[in-house]
Amino acid sequence: MAVTSIDIDRDLLHDAKELLDAPTNKEAVQRALQYTITMQRQRLAFDRISQREFTDEQIDAPKIDYAP
After folding, report:
1. In whole angstroms, what is the distance from residue 22 CA to residue 36 CA?
2. How does DSSP classify residue 24?
């Protein structure tokens, strides 16, 4: 793991620790970074899915009921 020294606003760090239920500053930063990465990846995936164009054959394809 890389060791990095950065200046972080104390109020932001405090809020992040509280919101993310992080016991340490390090954990708060790691959780915040992971959350940001996850949310951005989800947004990008949603954008790709929502921009997809379907053909009439795909739209009118038969439906399968998977009910048990």
Report:
1. 15
2. S
Give per-residue pLDDT as tens, 26-65. 999 999 999 999 999 999 999 999 998 888 888 888 888 8
pTM to 2 decimals? 0.69
Q: 40: domain range?
A: 10-49
Neighbours of 30 (CB within 10 A): 14
- Helices (DSSP H) in 1-68: which residue ranges? 10-19, 25-50, 56-59
The b/e string for 4-28 (b: 16+ C-beta within 10 A; e otherwise) is: eeeeeeeeeeeebbeebebeeeeeb
Q: How many domains, the chain?
A: 1
